[in-house]
Design goal:
With 490 residues, the chain is of the alpha/beta class. The chain has 3 domains: 77 residues, Winged helix-like DNA-binding domain superfamily/Winged helix DNA-binding domain (Arc Repressor Mutant, subunit A, Orthogonal Bundle); 123 residues, Alpha-Beta Complex (Aspartate Aminotransferase, domain 1), CATH 3.90.1150.10; 235 residues, Type I PLP-dependent aspartate aminotransferase-like (Major domain) (Aspartate Aminotransferase, domain 2, 3-Layer(aba) Sandwich), CATH 3.40.640. 38% of the residues lie in helices and 12% in strands. It contains 16 helices and 15 strands. A hairpin with a 2-residue loop joins β6 and β7. It is globular and about 90 Å long. The N and C termini lie far apart (66 Å).
Length: 490
């Protein structure tokens, strides 16, 4: 109460005395005043508000008469027990009500309305569902909590106190940049210098930075169809010149449809959401096309660490000789999505501009998270975790593949890359959004595929089933129950 502040609006709808009373009564009825501490004295309140002491005395006297305050000799004014016994409407009516004031029309000032864009909605309580085939979440039982806790403890120690408590403006943790350059990128065949790497708040932040830097109303953007909805939404906020490019069993088609682009967004290693992998020959053809037609490529390598089926195909960026590809990666799929750490790799001049833009937005990713992740990588815990994930995911990949073959035959094929999800094609007349609602009533969470299509008449019968966060033993029963739900829908 000693530092309690009341703001008075002079010349407004009610007197100063009434405004003081209203503020105190509201605080009392909302139980925001401690009965053990005195309210400010009339002298102090008057000085604080710049009003006469008589104004405050009259306000306090009225509250004494109405039972909101009690006066204790040589001690001051306190909240009365009686005032807190009943907070019924009768007491609340004592508060002075302001006159009706029209709300500001904030909406007319909006230059963008991202809330109007459709996005995949995922429940925060997904762990409560018996069969959570949800994408992008992790199985907490696989995460090495003790090792992460130790890295966090080390990061918070005195040795690196300055590394995470200081404001580093636009700079990244040098240890994390080193680990990305030495441990992560070489697995994808990418060689980069420190000034060609930028740490971001997840891959999503990297994509947004690139959209802001590279796209305006005249930019011609190409997107895979189907493709990543959030990337499509980011581009749509900047331009209407978007082309949806077909995907076949080998990923994005290299065709004349690419000839008039300025920018292409693609997921060649593990196409989103179909899971197909672009072969080396087509990657080379795509790079040749980009060079001939002079467009840039954003490569989203969103599950680069979850290839446990075939030999890894080099990233598109690793084949890029003239700096035409900007590579985007993330630690969400191997560490955990709540960490919000990703990175982009590109030409020095592009990274410098992205760094300057990031500084205006968030300065840098949280330094404590960066240092903890850097230690986790440097001590080999990340490599151990990847091996553990590969073993678990391979088993779930096989279980789900067999369950789909048994209960939903001819609906999907095993992703050749591995990954953490299956792309499923239901019966021709199936409405996957209707299916998702019906499945949810049976404790099954699936993700309808309509939002991954950007065209005007998207197919309705596709959906995605992920297995990164569901127990092995629940996969087959869940698929069986899902198949029964599809049959029940007719």
């Amino acid at each position: 109460m000693r530092d309690w502040l009341i703001h008075l609006k002079r010349g407004e709808y009610s007197s100063l005395q009434a405004q003081i009373r209203e503020a105190l009564v509201s605080a009392i009825l909302d139980r925001k005043l401690d009965q053990s501490e005195p309210v400010p004295s009339t002298r102090k309140m008057a000085k604080s508000l710049g009003v006469s002491r008589n104004t405050v005395v009259l306000a306090y006297q009225g509250m004494l008469d109405d039972g909101y305050l009690v006066a204790r000799e040589r001690s001051g004014y306190y909240v009365a027990d009686k005032a807190l016994e009943d907070t019924a409407p009768a007491l609340r009516q004592a508060k002075v009500k302001p006159a009706s004031v029209p709300a500001a029309d904030v909406a007319r000032h909006f230059k963008l309305k991202p809330a109007a864009l459709e996005n995949t909605v995922k429940p925060l309580n997904w762990q409560d569902f018996p069969y959570p085939f949800i994408y992008g979440q992790v199985d907490h039982t696989l995460f090495p909590l003790a090792e992460w806790r130790e890295c966090t403890r080390q990061a918070l120690g005195k040795r690196w106190l300055g590394a995470w408590t200081n404001d580093s403006w636009a700079s990244d943790d040098p240890l994390l940049v080193e680990q990305i350059r030495r441990r992560i990128l070489p697995r994808r065949g990418i060689m980069a210098s420190d000034d060609e790497i930028l740490v971001t708040l997840g891959a999503q932040n990297a994509l947004y930075l690139l959209t802001e830097l590279l796209v305006d109303g005249t930019t011609r953007v190409g997107l895979e169809e189907p493709g990543f909805p959030d990337a499509r939404n980011m581009f749509r906020l900047k331009t209407s010149n978007i082309s949806f490019l077909p995907v076949d069993d080998h990923g994005l088609l290299v065709s004349p449809a690419l000839d008039n682009l300025d920018l292409l967004f693609t997921t060649p290693s593990h196409q989103f959401p179909t899971t197909v992998t672009m072969p080396l020959e087509r990657r080379m053809a795509l790079l040749k096309k980009a060079q001939e037609k002079n467009f840039l490529i954003i490569e989203d390598d969103y599950e680069f660490e979850t290839n446990y089926v075939n030999e890894p195909c080099p990233a598109l960026k690793s084949l890029d000789d003239d700096g035409r590809v900007v590579y985007v990666g993330s630690l969400s799929k191997t560490l955990f999505p709540g960490l919000r750490l990703g990175f982009l790799v590109g030409p020095k001049e592009l990274v410098a501009e992205a760094r300057a833009l990031r500084r205006l937005m968030v300065r840098h990713a949280p330094s404590n998270n960066q240092r903890a992740a850097a230690l986790f990588l440097s001590l080999g815990h990340h490599d151990t975790l990847i091996r553990r994930l590969h073993k678990a995911y391979r088993q779930r990949w096989e279980i789900m593949g067999k369950a789909l073959a048994d209960h939903l035959p001819m609906s999907s094929r095993n992703p050749s890359f591995g990954g953490t999800a299956y792309w499923v094609k239901g019966p021709p007349r199936l409405d996957s959004e209707r299916l998702a609602k019906a499945a949810l009533e049976r404790g099954i969470f699936i993700e309808p595929g309509r939002l991954t299509f950007g065209g005007k008449t998207p197919p309705q019968n596709y959906f995605r089933l992920a297995f990164s966060s569901i127990d092995d033993k629940k996969i087959e029963p869940g698929i069986k129950l899902l198949a029964e739900t599809i049959r029940a829908l007719g």
